[in-house]
Amino acid sequence: MYCLIFTTLMLLSPVLCTKTSQDGIIFNKYHNHEQMLKVLHDTNAKCKDITKVYSIGKSVKGRELAVIAFSKSPEFHQPGVPEIKYIGNMHGNEVVGRAVLIDFVQYLCIEYLKGNKEILEFIGNTSLHIMPTMNPDGFAIADSQEDWPKDYIKGRYNANGVDLNRNFPDFDKVVCEFKKNSHLGYFRKYVAIATKGLVLQPETTAIIEWIMDKSFVLSANFHGGDMVANYPYDTTCNGKSREYNASPDDRIFRQLAHAYSNGNDHMSKSTGCSAGDNFKDGITNGAMWYSVSGGMQDFNYLATNCFELTIEMGCEKFPPPSDLPEYWRENKHALMNYALQATCGVKGFVRDSATGEGIPRAVVMLKDVHHAVWTAEHGDYWRLLAPGTYHVMVEAQGYENSVYYEVDVPECTPYSAVTLDINLNKETSYETSQRYKETMKHLRDALKAIRED
Ligand SMILES: [Zn+2]
Q1: Both ends of the chain: CA-CA distance in Å?
Q2: Using one digit for the tens of pLDDT, what is the confidence trace for 170-197?
Q3: CB environment 31-59: b (16+ within 10 A), e (fewer)
Q4: pLDDT by residue (tens digit) across 235-272?
Q5: What is the bridge-based pairing of β-strands 307-314 and 216-223?
Q6: For residues 288 and 243, is the Cβ–Cβ distance under 8 A?
Q7: pTM for the full model?
Q8: CA within 20 to 30 Å of 245's CA: 14, 164, 232, 437, which one?
Q9: Is 259 helix (H, G, I), strand (E, B) or coil?
């Protein structure tokens, strides 16, 4: 009330009338680019042992694509610790994810300093990278409109007028045309098909290099304009505008979508915001909702190890700032619930049986789920899986294939991943063939010597 009177008397914008928590987090305010960067750097200064701020590149207009990482060793990947990422504001005018991630960054640091057990355990066992905006130029355009409600489209695209969520190599095309369901390790020959006619934007290129560089396990990409957790595949294979298109990992993707939606009391009851939406429990297969090609979510799944969902945070793309505290309240648990999914399934190390050294880029496969993941730089891997019995095998260049190991994956509770370490023996066929060649050479030399006698 005090706030309202003050605003009316002084004719100030309601944006200046901030609602600050006891901890100093301002919940009902949009941060412009510089203010957002300041939050990241201030958080880093407060929590310097467990955070790192870095940039993965620049937007068309030269704004930093800034990330803050939380982990007990934020400078480096710790062997055996899963890497998670949250990306907001890919469409510049869909701003709730951006605002909620800026809150989340501050919340994690404050709760860590307070000694919150859940946060201490989370930061001790995972590595979370948060990018509040992937499209700072689009946000600046959307935010520059003074009137409410804001235009429905203005600011969606990057500064070159490109929809970033249609700008990724289209490996769905490969899945549809060639019925291949693995990852880029097997897809190299299809890269030309997936990238045909594509003009990559600087924001997209930066994201692709980031995803290929880090061994991300789990990700969420935050949007707005509807309310649902959307999982792969995003594209129909028959050209229809909507039809369920299940990936080989449909069961775990549904579990991941439920993990987000169940953590958000509003989303879990959402049937959708638009005519034609008919979501159940606030989740949907992407292609069942509407077919999208060149999206970031399916690129993550098909080209890398990372399982990503597209989270639609609410019906309004750019709600008034006074609604933001409620969005924070709704999403706070969902953000934690979802990230903890990275600690379920199967994890372990693939090592050389003679030296004990981890083997990077070993391919971890399952008998009945036709989608492989590969090991990270220290031979560590994570395979997100729904509860059930699976048969896991590993192959790596220069090594004999492992046998199939049977693994029982339990219901997901935090940090419940089953550990399966696999040792591989060096392939001997190379040495055998060398010996064979040498033997043949001796034989030829001997025969030659006999003939010359
Ligand atoms: Zn969007």
Answers
A1: 113
A2: 999 988 887 766 655 556 678 888 888 9
A3: bebeebbebbeebbeebeebbbbbebeeb
A4: 999 999 999 999 999 999 999 999 999 999 999 999 99
A5: parallel
A6: yes
A7: 0.91
A8: 164
A9: helix
Q: Long-range contacts for 172-175 (Cβ within 8 Å, ≥24 apart)?
A: 172/233, 172/234, 172/235, 172/237, 172/293, 172/298, 172/302, 173/235, 173/293, 174/302, 175/233, 175/237, 175/302
Strand partners, 350: 422
Which among 83, 94, 312, 316 is annotated as catalytic? 312
Phi, psi of 83 (to 5 degrees): -95, 130
Would you state the pLDDT for residue 83? 98
Q: Phi then psi for 160, rounded to 5 degrees?
A: -95, 5
Q: Per-residue pLDDT tens for 280-329?
A: 999 999 999 999 999 999 999 998 999 999 999 999 999 999 999 999 99
Give the 3-state secondary structure of residue 158: coil
**What is the whole-number distance in angstroms between the Cα of residue 96 and the centre of ligand 1?**
11
The dihedral through the CA atoms of 375, 378, 384, 390 has a sign that is positive
Ligand 1: centre distance to CA 226 (Å): 9
The protein residues having their C-beta less than 5 angstroms from ligand 1 (an ion) are: 91, 94, 223
Average pLDDT, the chain: 91
Q: What is the dihedral of CA 339, 340, 342, 348, to 10 degrees?
A: 150
Residue range 364-388: mean pLDDT, rounded = 95
DSSP string, 114-144: HT-HHHHHHHHH-EEEEES-S-HHHHHHHHT
Determine the number of helices (DSSP H) and then strands (DSSP E) in the chain.
14, 16
Residue 355 CA to ligand 1 center (angstroms) comes to 48
CA of 88 to the centre of ligand 1 (A): 10
121, HSE (Cβ side, Cα atoms, 13 Å): 9
Distance (Å) from CA 90 to ligand 1 centroid: 7
- Omega of the bond prior to 248 within 30 degrees of 0, cis? no
Active site (annotated) includes residue 316: no
Task: Give the distance (Å) from ligand 1 centre to CA of residue 297.
Answer: 12
